[in-house]
Amino acid sequence: MGNTLTCCVKPSASPKLGRRSGPAEPDYESEVYEAAAGDAVAVAPSPAALEPAELDFGTGEGHHLQHISDREMPDELALESNPSDHPRASTIFLNKSQTDVREKRKNNYVNHVSPGHLTKKYSSCSTIFLDDSTVSQPNLRTTVQCVTLAIYYHIKNRDANRSLDIFDERSHPLTRETVPEEYFKHDPEHKFIYRFVRTLFSAAQLTAECAIVTLVYLERLLTYAEIDICPTNWKRIVLGAVLLASKVWDDQAVWNVDYCQILKDITVEDMNEMERHFLELLQFNINVPASVYAKYYFDLRSLADDNDLPFVYAPLSRERAQNLEAISRLCEDKDLCRAALRRSLSADNFIGIQRSKAILS
User: Fold this and answer.
1) What positions does the domain Cyclin-like occupy (predicted)?
2) From the CB of residue 193, how many other CB atoms can be counted at a distance below 10 Å?
């Protein structure tokens, strides 16, 4: 009753933030006065008290707890940075190809070579030329060329040589013939990769959509497992991605024993083990959203345009024009039906469903 405690703080001092365990530290530029019965003693702040207080945001008792949305933010950012899962993330193969594309354009500028797209022939009449490739039905030959070119840039512009034993061709060879060590020291050419993938797709009768899904699984494996595709493992990684994509995409999937007929020296046990490891490294995430598939398709088109890969163009025929018109009309009808369903109706103008009266005898 007789003692009073007065605390005077300057207006410029910053306020306290939250509660903290332990002794409280005064703010800098503040003075604390304690008045006892009849005696007033001014206490000057110590040098340690002049230092700014540091707040501990730990998870201990009495500390500020992190919100659950803050803890989930790194996972969301990691998801958006993975192109095989998020449609807004840029594909890895397109980023790796930009270095060579810029170098090629620079050399063409220095050597006064006109770029390839300026030498294309353009029609001066009303004839419309279309290439035989759409996002729903890509051209098989062109798609396989683009996918193998993407794999080529993955190998050429890799960051390191990180690999796993299950994909190492030296530990699990695909042929009984002895492969020289020099083979694994040089990056394979694009035509060599294309020949290997074309053999698999021709023998197994796979579709162009399967090639795009193969590339999605390949980049997902490199991201999840944190490995690189290099001369020692590219064949087995591509084989595992093709094997998995054919089973997920095609209704009548190719069995593992069928690939043993294509690659004569590989065993079914080896194929089963590689498929099991591939799925485990993907964390059994074999889902490919339509938005991700479309992104990979158009990025492959951009890659083909940057590297002057030819597309087969043909004049628009009457039959194909009618098919395109029918498809467009069908889409317009669907949009009109959806708009009609969204429209709100007034209760005054509501007309119920008319039912015929039944007479029960």
Assistant:
1) 195-280
2) 23
